[in-house]
């Protein structure tokens, strides 16, 4: 309860400061690029699954550019994550909703790190390469979302400087991978072969 109150205070401050605007400042094409980069760091089994279902993953990820900010409640991310894990555990990996939720998680991460309404040319925020920071299990999503909002969202609202935005793209890709792999692992699926720390992929 105490943590929830603290988190709500953080969110309220962000709203007052104008941080919460419409959707993500990352364009739809930019978020799709994030997905492609994130696939490369995933363990082979998960990478194969995501690529085979990429049309549904992309559809889900578009949430960050299609929905208005008021409908993107950060608290919903944990519920989506739990539903994803439940679907995977119950053998529903092949269902549209399961693949879509992988994308929705990615969209929520992008929107949490850098909200709109200032839409930025993706060539200004996509670095030449993305470096993976190494897999980190994300069991406490509430704490993680609060951290991202304070460390990135609140500090970079309305920021259009490429030097500032490129690290945000890097962070978003890393957070997306960690959430995906955490869900895959929690469902009892194989995560062997996940990329090592320092692995890089080119974005262009």
Structure description:
The chain is an all-alpha fold and 204 residues long. It has one domain (2-202). Helix content is 62%, strand content 3%. The chain has 10 helices and 2 strands, in the order H-H-H-H-H-H-H-H-E-H-H-E. It has helices at 2-16, 28-41, 44-52, 54-61, 63-66, 76-89, 96-113, 122-125, 141-156, 162-186; strands spanning 129-131, 200-202. Strands 1-2 form a two-stranded antiparallel sheet. The longest helix is centred in the last third of the chain and has 25 residues, at 162-186. The N and C termini lie far apart (45 Å). The model is unreliable at 3-23 (pLDDT under 50).
Order of helices and strands: HHHHHHHHEHHE
How many domains is the backbone divided into? 1
Q: What oligomeric state do these chains adopt?
A: single chain
The Cα radius of gyration reads 16 Å
- Low-confidence segments, ≥5 residues, pLDDT <50? 3-23
SS-derived structural category:
mainly alpha
Number of strands: 2
Tell me the overall shape: globular
Strand content: under 5%
Helical run tally: 10
In spatial order, strands of the major sheet run 1-2
Distance between the termini: 45 Å
Q: What is the makeup of the main sheet?
A: 2 strands, antiparallel
Helix content: 55-70%
Q: What integer is the average pLDDT?
A: 80
